[in-house]
């Protein structure tokens, strides 16, 4: 198998890509800096033997994304089996505006670039990759209502800018995947302006057939519990398909990666077309 990974320099994307490589999957990374793995003892063996292909570019640059697609198709022998999109921004603080993103539409703009440059050879339903996209729990009005009370100040004070971008990104996915969407959650037009559905090259409504959205609870840098508890036959985290989890506080980035590689991809048919909330 071959995977095209965007956002794989760190966090969920990195941990998932490393798991895929260790399983024998080859990976094409789109990276703003290809030196990011220079001192990475785990990643370097895969870079040296060509299993990990590092493409320099910015997901906000349409031409860079198009070239990365072409490289991924070539490395995959004409196919790309998995697209893993884990790009995310970090909020900074402004005295006048509170917590803001330097690029308010980072995720949405990058995803539009990825989807609008899918090569023609991968657009038919039978040749489309499996798209795994990470967003967040709490970005829709219904999901936000289930957030534990003690986390509400964080979600309401620090995360709104990031969640506005992720909500717009999900709106694009729902359209292209032909999935249901609540009219209560129409996106911010400053991020996703009117007419976005006509973006050149963007898949038409319902054209994407193989999509799963991952909505983790509050992310931590904790260790992976999945490898330990899976051996004992116990679930290391809770999952909810197309719904919300009660008392969903947190989950480590490594366990999100564990779910993607160890649970989601091997059992794709059971998850396809859904949004999955993850939490301990």
From TrEMBL:
InterPro entries in alphabetical order: NAD(P)-bd_dom_sf (IPR036291)
Stated name of the protein: Uncharacterized protein
Protein's organism: Lentinus tigrinus ALCF2SS1-6
